Amino acid sequence: MEQARALRILSRIMSWDDERAAQEFAWLQVMAKVKYDGYRDFLAGMPFLESLAAWLQQFDPADRETAYSLLRKRLIYVGPAEMQRLVELFYPATMERYLIGRLAVGRAIPRFRVLSEEKFRRELDSLRRRTLIMGLSDGARIDILRHSTVGILSNEQFVVQTQVDSFKWADLLSDLKKAVDANATFEVIYLVDDFMGSGSSFLRWDAEKKKWTGKLTKFLTSLGENQGVVSANWKLCVHHYLASEQARDDVPKVVEKAKDDLQLASMPEITFGMVIPRRSNIDPATDAAIVELTKRYYNPSIQTVHTDKGGEKHLGLGYAGCALPLVLDHNTPNNSLAILWAECEARVVAGVQQPEMRPLFRRRQRHS
C-alpha cells in the first residue's frame, strides 16, 4: 500500500498521464526493489520512492522532468553485488598477475614458467606471503577480500588502515618471519580502496603548507617511522575497485611529479578494477538543462574548507568538478552532482536567500 501511495504521489508531482505513469511505475518498482531501496542511508520509512517524491518537489514543475531524466537516463548506481564482484576480482585479475610478472622479470623467464615449474611456484608462494594489503578507508572491503582469498592469503596479510603504530608493524613483521624465515621483510605493499573520483584525497600539493599531503603521504610517513619492515627493492602498488577516467589519467601524473619529494625509489603500480568513462559524465555542452539545475538549485552553505581542496568552490558539479552521476550503495561520493546528495535548509548567505537542498541519496559526510 505504501508503495502504491508513493507512486500515485509521484504521478501527481510529475503530471503523468495514465500511459506514461504505467511505463514509469513498472521501471520504478523494479529499480526500487533490485537496487535503490538497498541504499544504506535512506531514513527509516523513507525508502527510494518516498525519497524520490520528496526530492522532486524541491524543483519547479517545469524543471521536474529534467531532474527525473537525470535519474532515469544518466544515473550510475553501484550496488553491493557489483562492488563485491570488483573486490573479488582484485586478487586473480590484478594482484596475482602482478606478482607473477614481478617474479618472471626478476628471474628473466617467461610468465608461464612461474606456474608450470615447481621451484618457481614455491617462489611465488613466498612472494605472495611477503605481500601486505592495507585499506585506505573503510570502503576497502577488507572483509570481502579476506573471504575471497581464503587458502591463498593469510589473515595476517590484511590491515584495515594504512596509519598503524609501531606495535602493529612489529606484529606484522613477526608473523611474516614465522611464516617465511627469520630474515623476511615485505616486498610488495598494496593500498586498496573502493573509489577514486579526482584523486586529490589520495595525493595533492598543499600550496599553503608547501608540501604534498593526502592518504599516500600519511602511509609513507607511518612506514618511514618503522625501519626494517620492507626489503630494499620493495614495490608499492595502489588499487581502486572503481575510478573515474579523470582519476585514471591524472593520478599517475601527480604521483610521478611527487615521486622524488616522497622519496619513492620507483613509480608505484597504479591499477583500477573498473573505470567510469568520461562520456558518462554530465557535460555542460550536451547536458545544459541538467547543468542549469545544478546552478539554480544550489546552496553555497554546503561548501567547506575540505571541499575547497578540490580546486572548485562551487559544488554543483561535485567535488573538483568531476560531474559524475554516480551513487555507491554505501554512500554517494561528493564527486557526484550536488543535487543528488546535498542536504541543507534554506538560508540567507551573503544577503541572498538560498534554497533548501533535499538529497535523493543522502550522503554521509566524512568531515562533519
Protein architecture, described:
By secondary structure, this protein is of the alpha/beta class. Helix content is 42%, strand content 16%. The protein has 2 domains: 147 residues, no CATH class; 199 residues, no CATH class. The two termini are 37 Å apart. The model has no long low-confidence stretch (mean pLDDT 93).
Walk me through the topology.
Layout: H1 2-14, H2 18-34, H3 48-56, H4 64-74, E1 76-78, H5 80-107, H6 111-116, H7 118-129, E2 131-135, H8 142-148, E3 158-159, H9 166-179, E4 186-196, E5 204-206, E6 211-213, H10 215-224, E7 230-244, H11 245-258, E8 269-276, H12 288-296, E9 326-328, H13 338-341, E10 347-349, E11 352-354
The fraction of residues assigned to DSSP E strands is 15-25%
The coarse overall form would be elongated
Major sheet: size, sense and barrel closure?
5 strands, parallel
Q: Please write the string of helix (H) and strand (E) elements.
A: HHHHEHHHEHEHEEEHEHEHEHEE
How far the N terminus sits from the C terminus, by CA atoms, comes to 37 Å
Decide which structural class fits the backbone: alpha/beta
* Rg, nearest Å: 24 Å
* Secondary structure tally, helices: 13
Number of strands: 11
What is the spatial order of strands in the main beta sheet? 3-2-4-7-8
Instruction: Report the mean per-residue pLDDT as an integer.
Output: 93
> Helical residue percent?
40-55%
Overall number of structural domains: 2
Which stretches of 5+ consecutive residues score pLDDT under 50? Answer: none
